[in-house]
Structures are given as structure tokens and as C-alpha cells.
Design brief:
With 333 residues, the protein is mostly helical. Helices cover 74% and strands 0% of the residues. The longest helix is centred in the middle third of the chain and has 27 residues.
């Protein structure tokens, strides 16, 4: 179910992220976080944590953007500077871990071949994006318009077909399903980035937030190793990982201090430290490869669960309704 939630996340986020093009220093911010998490992972392995450095480093670099987008949207914070900062932080916390998972952790052809395949896959996604933006065959447009408010729902079905096609393609060339789902979400997001696409987007939101994502959280809970988590070592490790999420992901909020108010910077630190879906995927891969023990894996997932439960609530208490409507990003509303 992780790959389905990635499709929903990227479908919702890509038009917002594109509207707020990040300056060049955003890339420096992202590199700082990646390097910091990998250093922390290597340090923990040296200190005796029963997991390889890459599992810990990549897991601590993730952000639960799919959880944050609806929270920010409901609080009307997406068009504010804080919303832009969260999206920039969140996209970095989703995209790079997905690429690392796909190329280095699930590949079957070796790193060099996987990079070449990734470039080829990227070219296909770019071509599909160009088609989504420019190609408007009259017959297809007419079918989509005629079924928009009927049971035909051609646009929704085409979106799900694209999800299946790119996910299967990614899997067939040795990548993880998640990369295909993320790519299909980007393409669909581009195609629906118009007033007419809002209706289809709302229906995809209903499928995602009302059905797929709840199932994902239920399945995650069913598979969670509660016995390993509810031990002295397990709880202690979870507390450590929870604190490291704040230190590694949340500390990047300090790089936004000049652009945000103090309370918004605190809120960004809490929201940026929220992570779960990709942590589950990374731990699953690590356990299969023998790169992380079940107890450390359960503690990582437990820390992710606690971050999803605690950090967004605290962030909304800090910034909630106190963001002034006049501070919307230029061009919004």
C-alpha cells in the first residue's frame, strides 16, 4: 500500500511545488539534511546499534508529506511561507529516499546499470509529462468531459491506469513500485493542473484519503512488531530515533529562520520531523537484507508512528490559526 499512497501524495503536491519554485539555496538545504542523516546513521552503527548505517541514515531522512499536506490544507496554511517551506522540506524528504531505495537498495543489475535505467525511466516520465501538458486529442478530451459527471469517470480510470503502468514498469526494470507510483502522481498532477482538473483531483483525493491511505495505516499497524517495540530496549531506541528525527530533519528548519517567524520555524521543525510511510518501506527492505534487526526496525517504525501522532498536533498548536491571511505567497488567491 505504500506505493499507492505515494501516488496520492505526488498527485496533490506536484502542482503546489511547481507553483512555488524553490531558489537555488533549497538544494543546499536538502544536501545538508541528507549528509547529516547519513553521518548520524554511521555514528549509531559505530556505537553498536544493530543496523547498518544506510538503513538508519535513509530512514531518518524521510518525511511523511502525505500526512502533512491534508493537515496544512485544512488549516489553510499551504499558500503561506510556512506551507512553501514544509513542501520544500517534505518533497526532499520523499524524493531522494525513493531514488535511493529504487537504485541502491532494490536494484538487481548493479549501481551503474541501475543509474542508467533510472535515466531511461526518467526520460519516459518526462515524455509522459510533455504529453500530459501539450497533447489534447479532441476525441479523448470529449470523452473525458462527457464522463466527468457520470459513472464513466474516464479521467479517474486513465489516472489509475497510468499508476499501474508506471509502477509495473518500475518494478520490471528492478526499481521499487514506489518510484513508479511517485512518477505517475507527478504526471497526473501536471495533467490536472487546471481549473477543469480540480474535479478529478478531488475524486482522486477521495480515493486516496478516504480509502487507500487508511488501509495503508491499518496494514502497517497489523504488521507492526509490538512485542519487540514494548521492551525497555525497544522503547529507549524509539525515543532516541524520535529525538534524532527532530535533530536531523527538524534542525533544517533553522535554515529557514530568515524567511519565517520564530513560531513558524518551530512549526516547520516539528512538521519536517514527521515520518512514517517510507520508514516502513526502508525497514522492510533492511530486514529482508539482514541489514537491521527486528527490534531496531520496530523501534524505527514506532518512532515514525509517534512522530505522526505527536508532531503535527504540536505544530498546529504553535502556528495554527495565528498565521495572518495577509502573508499568503504572491500569486495565491
Amino acid at each position: 500500500m505504500t506505493w499507492l499512497s505515494r501516488f496520492v501524495d505526488s498527485t496533490l503536491v506536484s502542482p503546489i511545488e511547481r507553483d512555488h519554485r524553490q531558489p537555488d539555496h533549497m538544494f543546499r538545504r536538502r544536501r545538508v539534511v541528507v549528509v547529516a542523516t547519513l553521518v548520524v546513521g554511521a555514528t549509531l552503527e559505530l556505537l553498536g546499534v544493530d543496523a547498518e548505517w544506510w538503513v538508519l541514515g535513509v530512514a531518518l531522512a524521510t518525511t511523511a508529506l502525505g500526512t502533512l499536506v491534508p493537515i496544512l490544507s485544512d488549516a489553510q496554511l499551504l499558500p503561506t511561507p510556512l506551507g512553501r517551506a514544509v513542501l520544500g522540506t517534505g518533497v526532499a524528504g520523499e524524493f531522494w529516499p525513493i531514488v535511493v531505495i529504487s537504485v541502491f537498495l532494490t536494484g538487481v543489475y548493479g549501481a551503474v546499470a541501475e543509474v542508467m535505467l533510472l535515466l531511461g525511466f526518467g526520460a519516459i516520465v518526462i515524455a509522459a509529462s510533455a504529453v500530459a501538458l501539450r497533447a489534447r486529442p479532441p476525441h479523448l478530451v470529449r470523452v473525458v468531459q462527457e464522463t466527468l459527471h457520470t459513472t464513466g469517470q474516464a479521467a479517474v480510470r486513465i489516472s489509475l491506469l497510468l499508476l499501474a503502468a508506471l509502477s509495473l514498469l518500475a518494478n520490471d526494470v528492478g526499481f521499487d513500485f514506489v518510484l513508479g507510483a511517485f512518477a505517475s502522481g507527478l504526471v497526473v498532477g501536471l495533467a490536472l493542473d487546471s481549473p477543469k482538473g480540480e474535479v478529478v483531483r478531488m475524486r482522486l483525493e477521495g480515493i486516496g484519503f478516504g480509502f487507500l491511505i487508511p488501509i495503508y495505516f491499518v496494514v502497517t499497524g497489523m504488521d507492526f512488531d509490538l512485542d519487540s517495540f514494548l521492551t525497555v530496549t525497544g522503547i529507549a531506541l524509539a525515543a532516541l530515533f524520535l529525538g534524532l528525527l527532530i535533530v536531523t530533519r527538524g534542525a533544517s528548519a533553522l535554515l529557514w529562520a530568515r524567511e519565517l517567524e520564530r513560531r513558524e520555524t518551530v512549526g516547520l521543525a516539528l512538521l519536517g520531523a514527521t515520518g512514517l510511510p517510507l520508514i516502513v518501506a526502508i525497514v522492510g527492505i533492511g530486514v529482508d537484507r539482514g541489514a537491521v534487526s527486528t527490534q531496531v526496525g520496530a523501534s524505527l517504525i514506532g518512532a515514525g508512528m509517534l512522530s505522526v501522532l505527536i508532531f503535527p498536533l504540536l505544530a498546529m498548536r504553535v502556528v495554527g490559526s495565528r498565521v495572518e491571511p495577509g502573508r499568503l505567497v504572491a500569486g495565491e488567491y
